[in-house]
Amino acid sequence: MPMKRILVVDNEQYIQEVAKICLETVAGWKVETAGSGKEGIIKAETYQPDAILLDVMMPDMDGIATFEKLQANPLTKAIPVILLTAKIQASDRRRYAQIGMNGAIAKPFNPLELAQQVAAAVGWNLEN
Hints:
Elements: E1 5-9, H1 13-27, E2 30-34, H2 37-47, E3 51-55, H3 63-72, E4 81-85, H4 90-98, E5 103-106, H5 114-122
Parallel strand pairs: 1-2, 1-3, 3-4, 4-5
Helix pairs in contact: 2-3
């Protein structure tokens, strides 16, 4: 199976770094990062990741607005998106599923479980 490519979009540098290290180390995936929704959209177009981890709470363009722009773009519409969010309740999960999100992962996340959570959300088999 070819190496999976993940795009992590989060305005917090620390979250970007932890997610990148975890996903590269635990799953062997290649990870690209972006610090804003706008940068994330540009990188998604050019990098064409296999999945996007997207923070909900970001300045300027939040995760939901970013997701809507990704969905409206033919180049990025088919890329699975998983939200990273500090606020997640059953009603939020239902709403995210209704608008086409693949899943949501609560922050703070367990670094050792992140790859498995991403794989489960997009239906990948995580075997090293």
